[in-house]
Amino acid sequence: MDINNIFYSIPYLPSLAKVVYNKVGIPDFIRYNDTFWKTYNFLQKSQWWPRDKLQEYQLKQLKRLLHHSYENVPYYHKVFKERNIKPEDIRSLEDLNKLPCIDKDTFRSHFNEIIARNVNIQNLPLSHTSGTTGKPLQFYQTYTENILEWAFICFQWSRVGYRPGEKRVEMRGPIISKGKPAIYRPLDKVLRLSPIIRDRETVEFYIRSINSFGARYLHGYPSAIATFANMIKKYGLEVPFKLKAVLFSSEEVYDWERKVVEEVFNCRVFSHYGLAEHVALASECEKSDFYHFVPQYGIVEVDPKTHEIIATGFLNFVNPFIRYKTTDVASSTIFYECRYCGRQFPIVKRIEGRIEDFIVTSSGVVISPAVITHPFKDLKTIKNTQLVQVDYDYIILRVELYERPCEESEKEIKQLTNDLLRIINSNVKIEVEIVDEIERTLSGKFKWIVSKITNTGKIFFE
Questions:
Q1: pTM score > 0.70 for this model?
Q2: Dihedral angle sign, alpha carbons of residues 446, 348, 166, 8
Q3: SS3 string of 429-453?
């Protein structure tokens, strides 16, 4: 019996472990075990493989996943039968499109059929997505899968010098109470700071905490770290610590966020893309800001019409995700070989976030958040904003101010509204709501665009 089976066979141990992890972290001998180091070292070596060898590896992993799913997962067995094909009929990566895509609603409605019958799930914990769409997706993940995931993350961060087990500051995750905005997990060597930054006092506390902790890496939500940097700049505060890199994750990265963080902390911003479902993983290389999808992690497709990322993950054999529609959007089609670093990974210029994070006009044109973000740069009185699209012709602009409303803030809000109308459509009604604090998701993420439109019909990406 391996450690994964032992761990999950003991009643209440997984739940207890989660509580302990949130308080103190995971001991090195568990997190950095043989599985971790074998995977990490393999990735360091195979990242320089030529494209044909990487695709050969992908095909081998795909066949293994498909054979397992056909034999042990009722839903996928049925899918194969309905199409009168077997796993051995998938002879190339291109043959994968013989199978249909699966979306979140289908996964939910067939959840019990997508559980592998050769796995004991009695004590397996249910993982879930962050719920930014309002409907978190649940699925099972094993201890081994999470160790593999961490090896892949550390591999990506190694491009900016991060070493497994090195200290880091996190500004992400569930919101920490107002009275205690910092938690130190000694076993992980992680200082966790709340992604909610309310005032100058909090900013000064964060600066002192990071400085005394002595970590070289700050990891977290782009919105939180950019707010931190903006407030440092606004209040003219000094940064006494030196970071080697800021590690963005879990949200779309806007140019203004990258710019202000690089300016304030004088270091490289390194952006990472991943999903809780563990189906696709990408990050920038050390020499460019192109996203490099890790081929050893799974297979990534981009729908040529909607630009949606469709992914097949190699890590989860309990709830396999095969041709899973992520609802995330890539701005350009995938091509191979980065001319800057030489890796022959699938790469894409920009990942734009989720389909529901876009503004949709009545004519069906989809406007990227990256386009809308331009008027929001260099705001002086406005701390945070949120756009809520209630209907095609009705948008609520929520505004969180640094101080009380004043003449300067009124002018800035009016200018912002006019700029938005110019970009979106002059016929759209924009209603301004000034709020004390813009609500975050349960996982602490900041959702800049909230869409209440449930049926976009035929959409066109600009």
A1: yes
A2: positive
A3: EEEEEEECCCCCCCCCCCCCEEECC
* Rg (the chain; Cα; Å): 23
Domains assigned to the chain: 1-354 (3.40.50.12780), 358-461 (3.30.300.30)
Residue 283 DSSP one-character state: E
CA gap 371, 346 in Å, rounded: 25
**C-alpha distance from residue 304 to each of 310, 329, 330, 460 (Å):** 11, 11, 10, 12
**CA distance linking residue 92 with residue 345, whole number of Å:** 18
Sheet of strand 460-461, all strands in order from the earlier edge strand to the far edge: 359-360, 365-367, 460-461
- DSSP 3-state assignment of 326? strand
pLDDT in tens, 37-72: 999 999 999 999 999 999 999 999 999 999 999 999
Q: Is 148 helix (H, G, I), strand (E, B) or coil?
A: helix
Residues 387, 421: contact at Cβ < 8 Å?
Answer: no
